Structure formats: C-alpha cells, structure tokens
Amino acid sequence: MIETLAHLGNAFAALTTWQMLFHAAWATLLGIAVGSLPGLTATMGVALLTTLTYSLPTNAAILVLICMYVGAIYGGSRSAILLNIPGTPASAATTLDGFPLAKQGRAAYAMRVATTGSTLGTMVGIVLLIALAPALSELALKFGSFEYFWLAVFGVIISGQLTGGNTPIKGYIAGILGLMVAMIGSEGIHAHVRFNLGFSDLNGGIGLIPAMVGAFGFAEVLMVMWQPKADMVKSSREKGSGLPRFREAWKYRFTVLRSGVIGTFVGLIPGVGEDIGAWASYAAAKKASKEKDTYGKGSIEGLTAAETGNSAVVPGALIPALTLAVPGSAPAAVLIAALFIHGIRPGPMIMIEQPDFIYSVAVMLFLATVAIFVFGISLAPVFEVVLRIPRERLMPVVFALCVIGPFALTQRLFDVWVMVVFGILGFFMRRFGYPMAPLVLGIILGDLLDKNLRRGLTLSDGDISPFFTRPLCMIFVALIAFTILAGIPFVRKNTSGIARSLMRTGKDAR
Amino acid sequence: MRADLYTAPFLFLLGAAFTYGGWTMDRLEIRQIHPASIPGLVPMLLGVALAIAAIVLFVQARNRQTAETAPEGTKDTTPGSLRDLAKAAALCCIYALGLVGNIPFGIATALFITCFVIAFEADPPKGRAHLIKVAVIAIALGILVAAAMSILFRYAFLVRLP
Question: Which of A206, A407, A442, A460 is the most buried (most CB within 10 A)?
Fold first, then answer.
C-alpha cells in the first residue's frame, strides 16, 4: 500500500510540470473535438496522433495519447446528445436518453450530466487499474507459450462474439482476417518471409499504424461522405447553473459505481471496447432501476450509466494492454503500438522492468479526467461550434492527415498504399456488418498466437496435450468453448429452454 | 444480409488459398527445424478456420433469407449517396496514390483539399456568386491546410515530405 502510494507520488511529481500539464490540456481538448465530430473516432485520433508524437519524450507522448483517448471517448457524448449521432461508437447508448433530453430543451443539462458521469467513470476505472494491474501482471508471469496461445485465441473469440451483435460469426471472421494480416511478412521464429506476394516492402509485415489509420480514418471519411447529413438540435440556452450535476451523481451513486465497475471489467476483456461497456452498464442500470419507464425518454440515470460505463472502459482496457500486451479496445491496440515505438515493452515484465510505468499511466488518466471535467463544464458552447464544421471541409483535412501520418513514421509511400487498401477494406467491412475491433485485435495478437503455438509444440516435441492439460490452459479452453457454444442460436435456445424448465420444476417442487 | 451470400464464397476461397499457401510454404528442412514449427502451420489452420466460418456464414445467410419476408430483408440497406461515395473515394485515391509522391506534398494537398471542397459544396444552379464564394473558401482552406501541414511535418517533426 505504502509502496503504491510512493509510486503514485513519484509519478504525480513527474507529470505535473507546466510542460506536461500543457500537453494534457491541448491533447484532451483535441480529443474532445475529435470525439465530438461524427466520423472521427478515438482509434483514429490516437492513431493519427501517434504519428505526431514521434519526436516527443516518452512520458509526454504517452500522456498526449492517453488524453486524446479519454477526451475522444467523452467527446462522443456531445454529438450523441445534440445530433442523435454518437460521435464515437462508444456513445451509442448515450443517444437513447441524451437526445430526448436535448429535444426537451435540456441539452446543456444533459451535457453536464454526461461530463459528471464520464469523470466519475474514469475515476472508478483508475482505482481498479491501480488495484488490478500489478496482480494481473504477476499472474501473467505464470503464463508460458501454451497459455499465451490460448490467450490470443480467447481474445479473438470473445472480441468477435461480443462485437458481432446478432451474427457472431462475422466477428470471428473479422478476427481471423486480422490474424491472417499478421501472418504477412517475416515470421518471428525462423525469420521466414510469408505471403509477401513478391513485394519486398511486405517483408517486414503490415504496419499496425498505417492499417489502423486506413481502417478507422479513410474508412470513416468514406462512411461520412456516403451517409446523409445530420440535423443538429437547436442550441440550448436553458436556465440553471453551469456547474456539474453532483446532486444527480449522488442520487445515482450506486448506478455510477456499478457502471464504473462493469465498464472497467468490460475493458479487461480483450478487444471488446467502450461501446459494449456503455451498453452493458445501461442494461444493468435499467434492470436495477426503480424508474425503468423513463429509460429511452430522457432518463438521467440511463445517461449517467451509459457515460460512466464507456469512460470506465478506458482504464479497464489499459490493464491487459499494459500487463499482457493484449488490448482491451481498438484505441488501446494503437496505444500498444505507440508504446513500442517509444521504447516501452508492455507485457508481464513491465512491473519488473518499469514498475513506475503503470502508476504513471494512472496519473496520466487522472490528468485527462481533470481536463475533460474542466473543459466539459467550461467550454460546452465551443464544442457546439465544432459540431457545425461542414463535413465537406473537415473530411479532406482528415484524409490529408491520414496520408501524411503513416508516411511520417517510416517515410515510405508503401505505407500510404497500405492505408488506402485498409481504408477500402474497412469501408466494405462496416458496410457488410463486420465489426472492426476483432480485426485490430487479430493484427495485434497474430504474432503472439503464431509464435506461441509453434514454440509450445516444439517444447512438447509435437505433443498437443499440454495445450489442454495445464491448469490455466484448461480454464482458457473452457472459456473459449463456452463462448463459442453461447454464440450458436440452436444451443442458446435449447439451454435457455432447459434452464427455464429447471427453474419451473424448482418452483413447482417448492 | 443478402450480401453475405456473395461474400461467403469469396471468404471461402480466401481461406482455401491461405491453406494452400501454408501447405506449400517452405518447410525449412534444410535448416533442420522441428517439424512442428514450420512457418506454414498457423496460416494453414487460419485458412481452414476461415473456410469453415465462411460456410457457416453462407448457411446462416441462406436460412435467414428463407425465413425473412421480402421487405424486411432489405432493411440493411442504409440510405446513402453512392454518387458522393464514388466522388470522395475517387478524389482520395487520386490524391493518395497519384499526386503524393509525384508532385510536392504541399501542392498535392492544396489541390486535393480545394477540389474536394468544390466538388461537394459547389452547386451551379445557385448562381455565379455562390460558385465564386465556394471557390475562394476552397482555395483558402487548401492553401492554409497544406502550408500548415507541410511546415509542421517538415520543421517540427523533421519529416522529408514526399
């Protein structure tokens, strides 16, 4: 405990210089603006900013990226409330109650509730990050090749299952496609070049940043230009103080706490992300609520739950990203790539090699949270102006950044082509209902899966039994089997039928 | 979704191709590596997994199509402007694949942004004054953004621009 406080104190002292606070301020502000604008997502913001922070010192660069991430997830609530379009997918649940409130002429009030919810959600997540990350890191030290293989498989499967909606198979396909992308280029054990199709530029594989900038940047540009324009709710000038709604936060304290915990744990699940965190928190709040009828019609509790839930996912997603190098969300995946670029090696060794780093991340999240709180309350009208920027003027600027960003990292035009290819692929995947998170996760986990399967088989001399008999492997196998079975409609229908009949039998017996 | 019926065979073929690619990949016998660590192992497994997933997707799509009534089956077609999409995609591809690398980055970016804004904002029936206004805004935005980006990347991030 004292050691934790000492680490936090050190991190706080190192990160509260004027220079760092300036970085936190502009990056959060930019993040809120990016999140506010429909079509610009947190992943895209983090990916583009990664290319701009290349020359910054490590701590400043990571602080900037985390502030962008937190700011963008929070910023999505602005357009969700004012336009009924989530600025980022994370704010989809926010539209359900945020927009009805805006239509009632209470948009500013809704934005203050969203600000308070996001602030408290991130705070709950930060506390859990500090509590869980060192323990998870210690557990991860027990992982061998066999366990890492299953962890990678589990990540892709659970991400596909939870983000695939009604058709989990599309989530699995997206994950497999991501793993296939990771197979391109020189493999990690014998340095044999695979699937380079005769292009020597592919020998090093597909870069994560160009792929992400394409899949989340160019694809979004195409989506935005394709979709019809949205109408904004008339600017609200309702009476009432501009101060945050702590009264509501206290009234719904259990909802805040529950949503914060749910959000953080959803963040822990590989590649699931903020949107699922918000939906899960919203559903749990509705189930436990005494005022269920108001949900979907401008419920303050519903809005609080959605915003607390999505913001709590951010620290949650960073827990596996830092301790296992397995991202909890798509922006966290880009953040992992950025950590490698800046010389930090996420994974189980992080608590041994850089024990201060996890606490530094917690303090960075705290600074970002303070910034969203201050800006969210004081600059609400400015963000309304940002929302009025015509897409026809914004999108070409975004695309120009998508071109120069990947180029700036490696100074290769090939990465610009990769960005374009992934942009077109990403557009069609979205259009046909394939989730993007498993694709990202697949690209990140491909190397982990490939190396650990072959290394494990070499260690066991070709025997596959250790993959099924080691204790942690058995847990992973059970979880994977359960996840896949739960996704099969026939099994789901029959098991719920059996469960219902068992419950009925139990009741009859009583 | 009806499109699944067409994407599933494509995904199946991709899976089959990946499996074939993994199977025929060099097994590095000359280096005497462990046979269980051949580079083609995981691609083969992924190819098989994708092919199976494609079959499941096809079967599910076919079942859904027969179960659904016709009007509901068209629910997934979000209203969007194909013309706008084609225009945006063409402009972006010309810029990224044609202009960048062949002419200086600043000029390419200014041209792209100007053309993009004009292509989407100019509405000839609104008259000459409107067209002049759009053109001025487009040119100003193009030059401003191109100059800012070029200066930022060239001098702040020390990038040798294409």
Answer: A442
